[in-house]
Write a structure and sequence with these properties.
141 residues, 4-stranded antiparallel beta sheet, alpha+beta, binds adenosine-3',5'-cyclic-monophosphate, 39% helix
């Protein structure tokens, strides 16, 4: 069993696509074991994306990510990290395969509807950025 952080970004929340996106994740076999609607401050967005701080798109990305509410979720399942990335599609919405979340709801490389952790270590840090242990519910609840 593996866990990964999933974010529904402000563009997708504005499109009223929360339910459709969660349905696609659940249909792919992932279980929502933590969820909240939050609006990040600019500083919180900068903290979350700190690894990208030297990139030319960093400022615009943080502006976008703090522009409205997002849904933060923890997804659980076998190979959840890879599975989530498969259901999301590649980063650039325009290159994402048909049927993926980003092809359906993203519009560009930045406004790409969702975020998903890329490795076990990042998943741990990213989950801890949004959730306390008592906000997560695994098997047996
Ligand atoms: P995400 O998977 O959340 O990880 C980093 C984010 O930065 C990415 O999705 C995009 O929203 C954004 N991003 C990545 N590459 C670029 C780029 N070349 N130009 C603009 N935004 C980008």
């Amino acid at each position: 069993m593996e866990r990964t952080l999933s974010l529904i970004k402000p563009d997708a929340v504005r499109k009223n696509a929360i339910g459709a996106i969660i349905s696609m994740l659940e249909a792919g076999g992932l279980k929502v074991v933590g969820a909240k609607l939050v609006r990040l401050s600019r500083a919180q967005a900068e903290g979350f994306y700190a690894v990208h701080r030297e990139r030319p798109f960093f400022s615009s990305l943080c502006e976008f990510m703090s522009s409205g509410p997002i849904v933060a979720m923890v997804l659980e399942g076998e190979g959840a990290i890879a599975k989530n990335r498969e259901i999301m599609g590649v980063t650039d919405s325009k290159k994402a395969a048909p049927g993926t979340i980003r092809a359906r709801f993203g519009t560009s490389i930045e406004q790409n509807a969702v975020h998903g952790s890329d490795a076990p270590e990042t998943a741990r840090t990213e989950i801890a950025y949004f959730f306390a242990p008592y906000e997560l519910f695994g098997l047996g609840w």
